[in-house]
Amino acid sequence: MTERAAVEALIRDAYAARHRGDLDALMDYLHPDCSYRLAGGPEAAEVFARPDGHAAVREQMAGLIATYAFSNIEELALTVDGDRATLHWRADVECKPTGRHGSFEVMDIFTIADGKVKSLTQFTDTAGVARLSTP
């Protein structure tokens, strides 16, 4: 799947599932050999661990859904180039366990394979994420 409209729909649908907390729907959009990485050092916070494979990413996503809630989500730009895409977005984020809130801009880089998200790397304010997450 490299048609622009199909990739855009895949990404937007996956994010809609994530933002509403629907883990099963989210995982349907991810490739069996998927990987996910929130760019940052794992020593700063657990959220920066890098899972590979559907089961490991599912576990990470379940933890993220249980921990972070998003509001005021705004897509700033979505660019598709063949099997690669970038999404620039911003949102207000609440860390449920700590009750802390913050506003974040995020840049996501995707690789698409077989009509699914094969890899996702997210870039954001990692110090801000660690501040929200640390009790």
TrEMBL record:
Single GO MF descriptor: isomerase activity
The segment(s) forming the SnoaL-like domain are 11-118
Record-linked InterPro entries: NTF2-like_dom_sf (IPR032710), SnoaL-like (IPR037401)
Highest taxon of the source?
Answer: Bacteria
Q: Which UniProt keywords apply?
A: Isomerase
What is this protein's record name? Ketosteroid isomerase-related protein
In which organism is this protein found? Answer: Bosea thiooxidans
